[in-house]
Amino acid sequence: MELDLAQLFAGVVAGAAPIVLAALGETITEKAGVINLSLDGTILLSAMVAFAVAFETNNILLGFILAAMVGAAVAAIVAFFSIYLNQSQVAVGFVLTLMTRDLAYFLGNPYSRLQGPQVLPLSIPLVKTIPFLGPVFFDQSLPVYFSLIMIAFCGGYVYKTPMGLHLRSVGERPLASYARGINPKKMQMVYSIGGGLLVGLAGATFSLCVKPGWGRPQGAEGTGWIALVLVIFGGWNPIKAAMGAYLFSFLQIVGIYCQQWLPGVPAQVFQVAPFPLMIFTLLVMSLAQKESVLNWAEDKPQMKSILAFLSGSMPSALGKPYRPE
Amino acid sequence: MRIITRYLIEGILALFAVLLSTTIILLVSGAPPFAAYYYLFNGSLGSWTKLAQVIQVWVPLTLCASGLLYTFRIDLWNIGVEGQIMLGAVFTTAVLRIDAAKSMPILFIGLSLAAGIFGGAIWAVVAGFLKTKGGVNEIFAGLGLNFVGQGVILWLIFGPWHRPGIASMSGTELFPQKLWLPFYPALRLSPAGLVLAVAALVLTALFLRYTRMGLNLKAIGNNRDAAMLFGLKPDRYMIIAMIFAGGFAGLAGSVQAAGVYHRLLPAISSNYGYLALLVVMLSNYNVWITPLVAFFFACLNVGSIQLPMMLQLDSSLSGVIQGAFVLAALSVYAWRVRAKLTGEMAKDDGT
Fold it and tell me: Percent of chain B at pLDDT above 90?
């Protein structure tokens, strides 16, 4: 079988689009100090809503808009329970991840395995003829371009704008930012909803673009958990989290090729392979923070740079609801 | 007296909120709400056979929920309970597949249950060590291990343990009937599972309430730093809690494999682990309320099987209702805490 590298990487960029959006959304939410654990179910529910709306109205844009609103609504529930009702974010997020998944299967039942509308590819003239880069980045569809733009936007927003500074301050030291005249509760609510919008769009990108259609299972199951892990992998940096999404998408596609090359290995092994890898990544990330490991790498410049890439600190107030004293 | 009225009002409000939201969801999907409720009720408590099915679901739910009480007590989120059920079923199946099992059924049934407990505990301890030694959050470690457990089951069913002839999603070959947990033929219900679940519940209640270890778990869960100053080792107790949780979940997997399905199949855990997490949350981590909530959730699960047949609805409605109940309960608890706080503040102002 001939291996076309440009085609392979175009597939990586397209397949990663929803994961990038979900990971970016969750990074923004967690930067403000809120963990939205409901990602996996939210993505499914918004994917179902996007497909159902686009199917009924034949309007793809409307599907994307309503999916984003679903994502925002679920995120708002998580944030409300934690910020205003002082309930555990993990508990509420976990309940919602199961509940939204079941709701998606329940309401989506009549739309199972139907042929519906989907986003058409839209190549950008002129630049698409650039060798390699053209087909990889400029011969895609709108949601994919959107995911690429959002990486730059989120990275710039968080680290280069005054609003981004406020966002980070709320996640790090809510009391101090309160003293500076920022309302932490309001900010956490706003950024939870903002992150939720992106998660909803991730769902729509699945059901209208990357894995068109709805069914039980849809094929997006598990992605939400991957996105949550990518946030940790990215060290709460949106750009690094997005890089993680591309790495994951690359490994997924390599897995499909491997299945063809190694027919002796059962297919089930490749299906679950991302998850032990996910645990392993988290293990390495955590070990990379340990003092003994840092000391060991002191005189190994290559190891040091790898560790520096893996380092990234969690927002200090993550998961701890802000309570004014 | 006042407190009872209060709890009653809270309960009715929560129930009303859940019914309202479920009815709206049913109307949105174009289904007749009252018919749906009728089938949910009739499908779970309508006859003795249905009730037997409910108890069949109640057993693994209660076993898992008992185990989760240990981990919640020390403030651990054992999401890996799902995979622990699967590994319990795998280990049980491994023992029952030994050739010698047929000649000594009683011994091997006992061994297979012990193996199930062992399998579940191993899976839990892996997540526990990833947490205490590796610094990996137990939610992600457990979740990853759930997917791995599912992969192990699929690989066994399609690989080494496949049926003679063709491997399929329907699972491995049935165990010889001698190796099934004894059951009442009329109800297809195994009393052994029931006994094990009740025993697990009583053991958990006694352990958490009356033993030093149970008290230490609570102390660490409530205030880790203070417990450490007191000379308790949180890491060690986390592993202990995980062993209990994994052991009970593994036993649930054993009962499912040896007593219900009589084989290993891909959906052996039936999401009962995730559901048990909701059960414990809705019970507000109370040992004695847990079995009641588990019974109610089991009714919803069994009743919802009627929905696809009678109304062409997806059976996942039960999951939506269960989630709505937990959310309603969380709001009630929040409201209770808030009322208490404002009450105290009012008292402070008075003096």
Answer: 66
